[in-house]
């Protein structure tokens, strides 16, 4: 099993995709280092993640931590109308985590040794025997295998696929969390055991419970998390909207506390005007809402020699399938399997790995682009339509 005991791997990006990959490479015998640009521990990153089987596979098969220890669950999927009446309610269980809870759990399994914060990888070259990485700090490092898991804004992607570029979808997601304990009893009761949707013209929101910041999982002590999709015109409007309080333009996100106050005020008023009252209550009670712009990214290449590109760095799909981390995890597991099959030949493994991963990424992007059009362009996001369910491989799957 340990075919790669004398080999060194470097993973660029220490988020969920990078950590899952690094854990699996370690199992094959690689000595693994992760380089993450963020200088401080990342676990303060907020936001919920809908868990799909691939994301949880590490915990089901390889870890002493159990999926139930890092996640919350609901039993129903429901749509509310503008007076909080349930329009449709289907029995469909989902599990959720928060980015921080999941990150901490993966990092606990990886350990601190080999996890390097504050290191930005800015380029690389390779020869037949290895890859040389360059860091902005002036550091260099050499490895037999390099995995770029450096996210949607990957600087290094251009060295694998120079033509791959981000395309703005025309809308953004307002995100935020509110402690369940701060909700009115009626709203808590309505939301606590469901993935809840509220649909409005050219818009929809979904809400679900996630672990509290201290990891608490029991109903009443969790957070309600949401993503609310709103159109923002590309160009000057988008740039103004995404400029934070310090004057910095965020292409992908504006972090909590940095969204301009007037946009937050407008958003709170719009929530009251457009959404089911329960959803509006959560939105208006959010102390520090933040913004994630929704971009599409397709790639034609995920491999160059001994270097692989995976997760959001390779293809980024709009969140309507809630499948971003699942896709990154599938990429990582498939790489693990390809390396086993290639019996020590890293370049052969990467060549064999690439085609299916490209196809998976492009399929997800196709599907979520069509879903996004139904919500934000055509206003045909029909409550209860099973085609609109989350799922990496298709609705509900
Ligand atoms: C609104 C919204 C909702 C979402 N909801 C869900 C959901 O419910 N379920 C789900 O599965 N997914 C969801 N996603 C997608 C999910 O967040 C991503 O798919 C997932 O985080 C991808 O993980 P990653 O490891 O590939 O990249 P990232 O999480 O982006 O991590 C990349 C890492 O690389 C680091 N980095 C970048 N450049 C460098 C460099 N040069 N050197 C060193 N480090 C570097 C970054 O600091 C970062 O830590 C959502 C996304 C959005 C926008």
Q: How many domains is the backbone divided into?
A: 2
Total helical elements: 9
What's the CATH architecture of the largest domain? 3-Layer(bba) Sandwich
Number of strands: 18
- Average pLDDT, rounded to a whole number, is 96
Ligand species: flavin-adenine dinucleotide
Query: Can you tell me the CATH superfamily of the largest domain?
Result: FAD/NAD(P)-binding domain
What is the N-to-C order of secondary-structure elements (H for helix, E for strand)? EHEEHEEHEEEEEEHEEEHEHHEEEHH
Name the beta content range: 25-35%
Intertermini distance: 31 Å
Q: Compute the gyration radius: what is it?
A: 21 Å
CATH class of the largest domain, anyone? Alpha Beta
The biggest sheet amounts to: 9 strands, mixed
Report strand order across the widest sheet.
3-5-4-12-13-14-11-16-15
User: Are there runs of 5+ residues with pLDDT below 50, and where?
Assistant: none
Range of helix content: 25-40%
CATH topological fold name of the largest domain: FAD/NAD(P)-binding domain
| SS-derived structural category | alpha/beta
**Tertiary shape:** globular
List the helices and strands and how they pair.
Layout: E1 8-12, H1 16-27, E2 31-36, E3 48-51, H2 53-61, E4 72-80, E5 86-98, H3 99-110, E6 115-117, E7 121-126, E8 131-135, E9 140-143, E10 145-148, E11 166-179, H4 185-191, E12 194-200, E13 203-210, E14 223-231, H5 236-241, E15 253-254, H6 261-274, H7 277-284, E16 290-297, E17 303-304, E18 307-309, H8 324-341, H9 346-376
Parallel strand pairs: 1-2, 1-10, 2-6, 4-12, 10-18
Antiparallel strand pairs: 3-5, 4-5, 7-8, 8-9, 11-14, 11-16, 12-13, 13-14, 15-16, 17-18
Helix pairs in contact: 1-3, 1-8, 2-8, 4-7, 6-7, 8-9
The protein binds flavin-adenine dinucleotide.
Flavin-adenine dinucleotide is lined by residues 12-18, 35-38, 42, 49-50, 55, 120-121, 149-152, 155, 173, 175, 227, 292, 311-313, 319, 322-326, 328.
């Amino acid at each position: 099993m340990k075919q790669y005991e004398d080999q060194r791997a470097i993973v660029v990006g220490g988020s969920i995709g990078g950590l899952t990959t690094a854990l699996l490479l370690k199992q094959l015998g690689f000595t693994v280092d992760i380089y993450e640009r963020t200088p401080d521990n990342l676990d303060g990153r907020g936001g919920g993640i809908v868990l799909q089987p691939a994301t949880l596979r590490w915990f089901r098969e390889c870890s002493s931590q159990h999926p139930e220890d890092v996640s919350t669950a609901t039993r129903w999927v429901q749509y509310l109308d503008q007076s909080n009446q349930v329009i449709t309610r289907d029995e469909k269980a989902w599990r959720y985590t928060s980015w921080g809870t999941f990150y901490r759990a993966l990092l606990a399994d990886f350990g601190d040794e080999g996890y390097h914060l504050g290191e930005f990888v800015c380029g690389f070259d390779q020869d037949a025997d290895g890859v040389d990485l360059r860091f902005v700090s002036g550091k260099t490092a050499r490895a037999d295998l390099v995995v770029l898991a450096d996210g949607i804004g990957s600087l290094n992607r251009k060295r694998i696929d120079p033509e791959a570029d981000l395309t703005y979808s025309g809308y953004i997601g307002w995100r935020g969390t509110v402690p369940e304990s701060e909700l009115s009893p009626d709203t808590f009761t309505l939301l606590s055991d469901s993935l809840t949707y509220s649909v409005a013209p050219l818009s929809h929101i979904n809400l679900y419970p996630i672990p509290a910041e201290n990891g608490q999982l029991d109903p009443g002590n969790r957070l309600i998390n949401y993503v609310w999709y709103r159109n923002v015109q590309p160009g000057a409007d988008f740039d103004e909207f995404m400029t934070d309080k310090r004057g910095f333009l965020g292409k992908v996100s504006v972090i909590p506390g940095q969204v301009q106050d007037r946009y937050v005020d407008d958003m709170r008023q719009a929530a009251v005007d457009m959404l089911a009252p329960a959803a509006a209550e959560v939105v208006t009670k959010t102390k520090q809402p933040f913004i994630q712009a929704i971009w599409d990214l397709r790639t034609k290449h995920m491999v160059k020699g001994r270097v692989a590109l995976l997760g959001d760095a390779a293809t980024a799909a709009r969140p309507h399938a809630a499948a971003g981390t699942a896709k990154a995890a599938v990429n990582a597991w498939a790489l693990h399997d390809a390396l086993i099959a290639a019996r020590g030949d890293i370049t052969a493994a990467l060549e064999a790995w690439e085609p299916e991963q490209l196809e998976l990424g492009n399929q997800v992007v196709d599907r979520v682009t069509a879903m996004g059009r139904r919500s934000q362009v055509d206003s045909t996001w029909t409550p209860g339509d099973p085609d609109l369910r989350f799922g990496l491989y298709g609705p509900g799957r």
